[in-house]
């Protein structure tokens, strides 16, 4: 059974420059009793810095995506997920018969990301640049949790992250059932009805990102694909718009023809947009 969003793939493309105007350093750091392994990418004259937060799946450090960001003047810490690669701990996920979207696991992964922010901040202590989080899919739940835990985090960049609860997202994902032509035969009203009313197939402690986002005051950017069949985009945008009035510095960018993997589709526009947005953080 699938308890998660499909892995969000960061794959190299034309944005990945040939030159390597940065240094790299492998690091090990502690989080909740285990050792995590990662790499810091430090470009010359960096204007911002990010920790890459994993989506679902057994993801190692994302060196290609980190290289892309570093070549664009953004410092990066990317690490092997808990229980994967050179990192200690136990990986949770359906491949090993466990539920990785239970609130306890999402919070544990957010603590790992928070520890990574502390490591990156210490490494860049003589460089007063803003540090943020970037990630996609399942990271859309983890990133706000991390930002609430660590005041060093100054911004969030989220690709295809749901603004609905985990259980609601699963209802939508089960209904679309991986059908790439889903939106050719279903309406928004139909999909929303199933998302909000279908019975849950699994019982676990749920997570509602709105609970956290209402408490945060840092800027956030969400990038969506209009043909996403894993996240109900229109519903997520509607909920995000309800958060925006007042002091919330939340933005979104919609690419109507893209699917779930907005970061690296055939179009480089989403990543270019995200990089420009990050480099404008103060």
Quote the distance from N terminus to C terminus: 43 Å
CATH structural class = Alpha Beta
The description of the largest β-sheet is: 8 strands, mixed
The name of the CATH topology is Rossmann fold
How much helical structure, as a percent, in the residues?
25-40%
Strand content: 15-25%
CATH superfamily: Alpha/Beta hydrolase fold, catalytic domain
- Specify the overall morphology: globular
Number of strand elements: 8
User: What class do helices, strands and sheet pairing give?
Assistant: alpha/beta
pLDDT averaged residue by residue: 90
What is the N-to-C order of secondary-structure elements (H for helix, E for strand)? EEEHEHEHEHHHHEHEH
Domains, number: 1
Q: What integer value in Å does the Rg equal?
A: 18 Å
Strand order of the largest sheet: 1-2-4-3-5-6-7-8
- List low-confidence stretches: 1-7, 10-18
Q: State the helix count.
A: 9
Ordered list of secondary-structure elements with their pairings:
Layout: E1 22-31, E2 34-43, E3 48-53, H1 63-71, E4 74-79, H2 103-123, E5 131-136, H3 139-149, E6 153-159, H4 166-176, H5 182-185, H6 188-197, H7 209-213, E7 220-225, H8 233-243, E8 250-255, H9 269-279
Parallel strand pairs: 3-4, 3-5, 5-6, 6-7, 7-8
Antiparallel strand pairs: 1-2, 2-4
Brief overview:
The protein has helices spanning 63-71, 103-123, 139-149, 166-176, 182-185, 188-197, 209-213, 233-243, 269-279, and strands spanning 22-31, 34-43, 48-53, 74-79, 131-136, 153-159, 220-225, 250-255. With 282 residues, it is an alpha/beta fold.
Description:
Helices cover 33% and strands 20% of the residues. Strand 3 (48-53), helix 1 (63-71) and strand 4 form a beta-alpha-beta unit. It has an eight-stranded mixed β-sheet, with helices on both faces. The chain has a single domain (22-279), classed as Rossmann fold (3-Layer(aba) Sandwich), CATH 3.40.50. It has 282 residues and is of the alpha/beta class. The protein is globular and about 55 Å long. It starts with 21 loop residues before the first strand and ends with a helix. The protein is built from nine helices and eight strands. Helix 2 crosses helix 3 and helix 4 crosses helix 6.
């Amino acid at each position: 059974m699938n308890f998660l969003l499909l892995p969000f793939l960061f794959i190299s493309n034309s944005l990945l420059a040939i030159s390597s105007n940065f240094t790299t350093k492998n690091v090990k750091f502690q989080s909740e009793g285990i050792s995590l392994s990662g790499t810091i990418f430090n470009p010359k004259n960096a204007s911002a810095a990010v920790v890459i937060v994993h989506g679902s799946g057994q993801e190692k450090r994302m060196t290609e995506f980190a290289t892309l960001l570093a070549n664009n003047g953004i410092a990066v810490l990317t690490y092997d997920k808990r229980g994967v690669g050179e990192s200690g701990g136990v990986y949770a996920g359906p491949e090993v018969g466990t539920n990785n979207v239970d609130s306890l696991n999402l919070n544990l992964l957010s603590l790992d990301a928070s520890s990574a922010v502390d490591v990156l901040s210490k490494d860049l202590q003589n460089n007063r640049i803003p540090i943020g989080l970037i990630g996609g899919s399942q990271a859309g739940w983890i990133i706000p949790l991390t930002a609430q835990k660590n005041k060093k985090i100054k911004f969030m960049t989220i690709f295809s992250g749901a603004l609905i609860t985990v259980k609601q997202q699963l209802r939508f994902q089960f209904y679309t059932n991986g059908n790439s032509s889903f939106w050719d035969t279903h309406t928004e009203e139909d999909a929303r009805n199933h998302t909000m009313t279908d019975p849950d197939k699994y019982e676990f402690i749920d997570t509602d990102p709105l609970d956290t986002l209402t408490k945060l005051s840092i800027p956030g950017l969400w990038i969506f694909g209009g043909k996403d069949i894993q996240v109900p985009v229109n519903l997520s945008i509607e909920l995000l718009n309800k958060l925006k009035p007042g002091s919330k510095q939340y933005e979104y960018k919609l690419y109507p023809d893209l699917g779930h993997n907005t970061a690296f589709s055939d179009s480089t526009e989403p990543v270019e947009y995200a990089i420009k947005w990050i480099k404008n953080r103060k």
